[in-house]
Write a structure and sequence with these properties.
By secondary structure, this protein is α+β, with helices and mostly antiparallel strands. It is built from nine helices and 15 strands. Helix 3 packs across helix 6 and helix 7 packs antiparallel against helix 9.
Length: about 450
């Protein structure tokens, strides 16, 4: 006999016990909560049950809590965590994203495998809110991994906090240096000379941490020596230290990585920038730059190249772009700076929004002035269009996600908890009256984008 679950909005933790046979009388369960459709236990998304013992989750510091994960009705993890609210502009929304670390009985950090991902201690529960497709980040991360570029592994899930349903989430890995994540050398504080000094570094183009998002200092970052193109109010590009971070990086390491990046920019800006020995190719892994470019252009990521942009340099290797991060405003989901258009170049953001605080470096315009770079980019595009970037491949992924969230009842439950369908949520470019219309918009947008890029890339 197939077991079915009566889902309730705002059902407590032990909702898993409300399992009844499919031929039982549904009226035996009473209450004032809104009842969701019956769902077979094996069709449920992974359930993250967070118990803070009544404490409020805040944006730093992490508070103590317990996490239980249930998959297909079976408990697969139980343990202590430290949890906090995460995000920048997304914190304006009532549905919060969370960062958490898994801990042992002594409350020390503990590497564990969750939902089959490689063991680690740092994790994220991302809360789609303005992205009413619920899948933009999940989609682009999977496409990146499928094309051979590591991005955070992710899975769709549902979250309960202290017994209250909090909606559908995307469970994902926090980006950090790790053999199964950003796989580069760990740079120690005593490695300050010779080849030891050459890596690994993780830099970011992003808002500054803390309450002042524009507070860039010699402690947390170093500036580009070349002004961003088309900017009109004296904006600068700043490279934030992520690993080693501003507390751990040594003066020698700061000097090395800033000199290396400045050397790359100087070579790229020079008259000999196309020379394979003294030009920009001496400093960067061109393949990674091209893949990063294509992922941002595929989605017209309005934050692309300027925010949530990660750059790495491993020991004895060149600069690499990526992993990609934070595409919730991509795929036509932003109503400013042509973020909703599928017929503009994302890398030319500065031309459209020259007064924005965070601008795009000159790199991409200059790289496209090199015929060899353009040819390499065109060849990569052609390869991807026959595989990972084909319309059929992407559409099938989206359809699989839709089946997952509809069969599980998660989409309906999420929008019962957060009734934003048909409502403008900053910065929506499109407001659909139903979940189906949001998905249709996403699919149609991608189809038009692919067709536009086919023509534009061919004519570069």
């Amino acid at each position: 006999m197939k077991m079915m679950l009566k889902r309730f909005y705002n059902t407590p933790f032990l909702f898993f016990l409300l399992v009844i046979a499919c031929n039982d009388d549904p009226d035996v369960i009473t209450g004032e909560e809104e009842m969701m459709p019956e769902v077979a236990v094996e069709d449920l998304l992974p359930q993250f049950l967070i118990n803070t013992n009544g404490a409020t989750i805040v944006d730093e510091p992490k508070i103590d809590a317990e996490l239980v994960i249930v998959e297909a009705g079976v408990e697969t993890h139980r343990g202590a965590i430290g949890i906090e609210i995460r995000g920048s502009s997304s914190q304006q929304f009532p549905k919060k994203s969370f960062g958490f670390e898994t801990r042992d009985e002594a409350n020390e950090d503990l590497d564990v495998s969750l939902l089959g991902f490689p063991e680690e201690e740092d994790w994220i529960l991302y809360a789609p809110y303005s992205d009413k497709s619920l899948m933009r980040n999940h989609l682009i991360y999977e496409l990146s991994n499928d094309m051979g570029r590591y991005a955070s592994r992710s899975k769709l899930a549902e979250v309960y906090i202290n017994g209250v349903y909090n909606g559908m989430y995307v469970f994902m890995e926090k980006l950090k240096r790790d053999s199964n994540r950003i796989d580069i050398n760990k740079l120690k504080d005593d490695e300050n000379t010779g080849e030891d000094l050459t890596g690994g570094y993780i830099l970011k183009l992003d808002k500054a941490d803390g309450t002042n998002e524009t507070l860039y200092t010699d402690t947390n970052s170093f500036p580009s020596q070349i002004d961003p193109p088309n900017s009109t109010i004296g904006q600068e590009i700043h490279f934030l230290y992520d690993d080693p971070d501003d507390e751990d990086i040594t003066p020698e390491q700061k000097e090395y990585i800033s000199t290396y990046v400045n050397g790359f920019e100087t070579a790229l800006a020079s008259d000999t920038f196309t020379d394979p020995d003294v030009g920009y190719r001496a400093f960067i892994d061109t393949d990674s730059f091209i893949d990063f470019f294509l992922l941002n252009e595929l989605s017209n990521n309005v934050d692309g190249y300027r925010l949530s942009t990660w750059i790495t340099k491993d020991k004895n290797e060149k600069l690499k772009m990526g992993p990609i991060w934070d595409f919730n405003l991509a795929f036509g989901n932003a109503d400013y700076c042509s973020g909703g258009s599928n017929m503009v170049w994302a890398y030319r953001f500065n031309e459209r929004c020259s007064n924005d605080t965070w601008q795009i470096p000159f790199w991409w315009e200059r790289l496209l002035e090199d015929p060899a770079f353009v040819t390499q980019l065109q060849e990569r595009w052609t390869t991807l269009r026959a595989s990972t970037f084909s319309e059929g491949y992407i559409t099938e992924k989206i359809d699989d996600y839709v089946t997952e969230v509809q069969t599980s009842g998660s989409a309906q439950a999420n929008f019962s908890r957060w009734p934003v369908l048909g409502v403008y949520v900053w910065p929506n470019n499109f407001v659909g009256s139903s979940y189906d219309s949001e998905v249709t918009y996403l699919k149609d947008w991608i189809t038009q984008r692919l067709n536009w890029l086919d023509t534009e890339i061919e004519s570069l």
